[in-house]
Amino acid sequence: MNTIIKKPLITEKATNDSENNNRFTFIVDVRANKLQIKNAVENMYNVTVDTVRTMNYGGGKPSVKYTNKGIVEQRSKRFKKAVVTVADGETIDLFTNV
User: Fold this and answer.
1) Residue 8: what are its φ and ψ, rounded to 5°?
2) Global pTM?
3) What is the pLDDT of residues 15-55, one digit of tens each?
4) What is the CATH number assigned to the segment(s) 5-86?
5) Which end of the chain is more exposed for a tag (fewer CB within 10 A), N or C?
6) What distance in Å separates the CA atoms of residue 43 and residue 46, rounded to the nearest whole number?
7) Residue 24: its pLDDT value, please?
8) Which pLDDT band, with edges at 50, 70 and 90, does 96 fall under?
9) For residue 87, what pLDDT is reported?
């Protein structure tokens, strides 16, 4: 279960969303589906998950770099982001393990 959730995503937008709407953002395994993400969050943080939204990033668009060795093309890294909505009255404290 711990391999499904790689790390929480702590940005300004994600922190604002967690404070106001009980939504928490995680970087998850690319192959994980919504049910696996829901079960992993519920087991890891002991909360009730209402909804899970997922987004896939990267992988398809190559980036071009101009170096002193010439032009280098490489693909951007793939990752999957999951926005998890927690039931009212429950919260996840992401800063206790820091």
Assistant:
1) -75, 150
2) 0.82
3) 999 999 999 999 999 999 999 999 999 999 999 999 999 99
4) 3.30.70.330
5) C
6) 6
7) 96
8) confident
9) 94
Distances (CA, A) of 10 to 41, 51, 73: 16, 19, 30
Strand residues in the chain grouped as ranges (E): 5-8, 23-28, 49-57, 62-67, 70-75, 79-86
- Closest to 82 in 3D by CA, of 42, 25, 40, 29: 25
**Rounded distance, CA 80 to CA 9, Å?**
11
Please, which residues have CB within 8 angstroms of residue 92's CB and are 6 or more apart in sequence? 18, 24, 41, 45, 47, 86
Read off the amino acid at residue 3: T
| Helix, strand, coil percentages in the chain from 3-state DSSP, rounded to 5 | 20, 40, 40
Q: Where are the domains of the chain?
A: 5-86
Both tokens of 14, joined, read: 């994600």
